[in-house]
């Protein structure tokens, strides 16, 4: 997922941008293209493996179901059904690829939290004052508000999160379509190796001192 700038904030792709992320991620994933090098030497951390496993299972079941359905459809509808199912499966595979090819990035200057094709959140490295384990579920997908915590956001491709970041100074974010901004001082996120990501954040903080 391309980052338009290193400035703090939320990057939400347009519908066209989302389609491009899905297509490009799938093509590069299938071709086993290496991930691009980061100019600031940021370390990569995978996320959303549970989402990928679940989505892959759904796609397998969908493919089997589609084949069974096609066998009982009148011949005149089979071509349209096949095209629809192919697009559906390719979109799902693109979503799987997007989470795999867009890891979180950690460097002393910035932290980029990614959610596949759902957007990303960039936070200044100097704003991260602490990181702790916090296993919980936050309803929704992507970058969203946390119920009961007006100054917190969750950033994950699924509902589960396992790390909590405290920010000081808070980051001003636009969390909706109204243009109203919110001072965010807490970010919940998920990572496949949360302890390793937390350690990298502490090491990045040590490099800044």
3D structure, described in words:
The protein is an alpha+beta fold. It has helices spanning 15-30, 49-72, 75-101, 194-208, and strands spanning 9-11, 43-45, 104-106, 110-114, 120-124, 128-137, 142-146, 149-156, 160-174, 181-189. The protein has four helices and ten strands, in the order E-H-E-H-H-E-E-E-E-E-E-E-E-H. The longest helix is centred in the middle third of the chain and has 27 residues, at 75-101. The chain starts with 8 loop residues before the first strand and ends with a helix.
Question: What's the layout of helices and strands?
Answer:
Elements: E1 9-11, H1 15-30, E2 43-45, H2 49-72, H3 75-101, E3 104-106, E4 110-114, E5 120-124, E6 128-137, E7 142-146, E8 149-156, E9 160-174, E10 181-189, H4 194-208
Parallel strand pairs: 8-10
Antiparallel strand pairs: 1-5, 2-3, 3-4, 4-5, 6-9, 7-8, 9-10
Features:
209 residues, elongated
Which spans of ≥5 residues are poorly predicted at pLDDT below 50?
Answer: 1-5
Mean pLDDT, all residues: 92
Nearest-angstrom radius of gyration? 19 Å
Number of H- or I-type helical stretches: 4
Offer a concise description of the structure.
This protein is of the alpha+beta class and about 210 residues long. It has helices spanning about 15-30, 50-70, 75-100, 195-209, and strands at about 10, 45, 105, 110-115, 120-125, 130-135, 140-145, 150-155, 160-175, 180-190. Helix content is about 40%, strand content about 30%.
């Amino acid at each position: 997922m391309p980052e338009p700038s290193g400035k703090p904030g939320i990057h939400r792709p347009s519908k066209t941008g989302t389609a491009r992320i899905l297509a490009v991620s799938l093509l590069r994933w299938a071709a086993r293209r290496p991930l691009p090098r980061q100019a600031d030497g940021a370390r990569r951390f995978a996320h959303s493996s549970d989402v990928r496993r679940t989505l892959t299972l759904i796609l397998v079941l969908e493919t089997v179901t589609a084949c069974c359905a096609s066998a009982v459809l009148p011949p005149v509808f089979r071509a349209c059904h096949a095209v629809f199912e192919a697009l559906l499966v390719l979109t799902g595979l693109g979503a799987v690829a997007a989470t795999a090819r867009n890891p979180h990035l950690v460097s002393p200057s910035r932290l980029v939290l990614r959610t596949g094709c759902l957007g990303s959140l960039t936070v200044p490295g100097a704003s991260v004052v602490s990181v702790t384990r916090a296993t919980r579920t936050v309803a929704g997908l992507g970058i969203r508000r946390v119920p009961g915590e007006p100054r917190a956001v969750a950033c994950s491709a699924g509902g589960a999160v396992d790390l909590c970041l405290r920010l000081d100074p808070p980051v001003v974010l636009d969390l909706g379509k109204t243009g109203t901004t919110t001072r965010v001082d807490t970010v919940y996120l998920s990572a496949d190796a949360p302890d390793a990501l937390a350690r990298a954040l502490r090491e990045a903080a040590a490099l800044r001192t």
